[in-house]
Design brief:
The protein is of the alpha/beta class and 267 residues long. It has 6 helices and 15 strands. It has one domain: L-arginine/glycine Amidinotransferase, Chain A. The longest helix has 17 residues. It binds citrulline.
Length: 267
């Protein structure tokens, strides 16, 4: 892996506002439709927090044809060497990739494509300072992993396929980078071999959804409603910012998936 490399240092983010069609977003369990007004409110607050973390945020307009397009992280992977347009694994989300390629290209990103086969969702990609871990899941398969790996290895990264726990949507639903040495993870992932080089903070039982926190520069964004996790991270010395993401959660979304973060990764 190239050094120095800080996988949680960013200067920019891209987000997309939720649209009216967000009510039709995919979900594993139907716990009710998101309230679009509240979703917009939470999304605006999310943008403000990204800005307070030091990022310049590009806010893209809603894309009504794609109900899950607010979850921008799944359509691209942005690294200092270039941006890979991914191939989201859900049929209803496949078209998000072309829309994101257009938007990022307009923002000046150098666009790279994975080829015509396989699928990878950004939610399955955990970029750490040592290695890029890619969780194989219902949305990310070996063909997609192999195509992505070819690009990333060409850029000098170590890349490893790992297993996303059964019944978990994305690998990053269950883990997050806290710093170069430290990962936040659920107990079901804590012992994963891929985490052996890291110190692992384990979210308390019953707070598994809080593992989808996100480190951005000096802050760790933690979803509201998980006080044990917020305290765990805070006691470990990190600056915690608690954020309401209840509407995104109704669609199995969370803090990491609502932004693409990039720039300034090399320290
Ligand atoms: C989906 O099922 O694809 C969306 N409803 C949620 C995607 C969340 N994305 C993420 O965690 N990276």
């Amino acid at each position: 892996m190239k050094t120095p490399f800080f996988s949680y240092h960013f200067t920019h983010a891209v987000v997309r506002r939720p649209g009216l069609s967000s009510v039709d977003g995919l979900r594993a369990v139907d716990r009710g439709q998101p309230d679009i007004r509240r979703f917009e409110f939470e999304h605006n607050a999310y943008v403000r927090v990204l800005e307070r973390a030091g990022l310049k945020v590009e806010v893209l307009p809603p894309l009504e044809a794609f109900p899950d397009s607010v979850f921008v992280e799944d359509a691209a992977l942005c690294l200092p060497q270039g941006t890979v347009i991914l191939r989201p694994g859900a049929a209803s989300r496949a078209g998000e990739a072309a829309a994101m390629a257009g938007a990022l290209s307009e923002l000046g990103h150098e666009i790279h494509r994975m080829g015509p086969d396989g699928c990878v969702d950004g939610g399955d990609i955990l970029v750490t300072d040592r290695v890029i871990l890619v969780g194989l899941s219902e949305r990310t398969n070996m063909v997609g992993f192999t195509a992505l790996k070819k690009i990333l290895v060409g850029w000098g990264y170590s890349v490893q396929a790992v297993t996303t726990p059964a019944s978990v949507l994305h690998f990053k639903s269950d883990c997050a980078v806290l710093d170069s040495e430290t990962i936040l993870a659920t107990s079901r992932l804590r012992g994963a071999e891929c985490f052996a080089p890291f110190q692992v903070l384990t979210v308390p039982a019953g707070e598994e959804a809080a593992a989808n926190s996100v480190r951005i520069n000096s802050k760790v964004l933690v979803p509201a409603g998980y006080p044990g996790t917020a305290e765990l991270i805070s006691r470990a010395g990190y600056e915690v910012e608690v954020m309401g993401v209840g509407q995104a959660a109704l669609l199995d979304g969370g803090l990491s998936c609502m932004s693409l973060r990039f720039g300034g990764i090399h320290g």
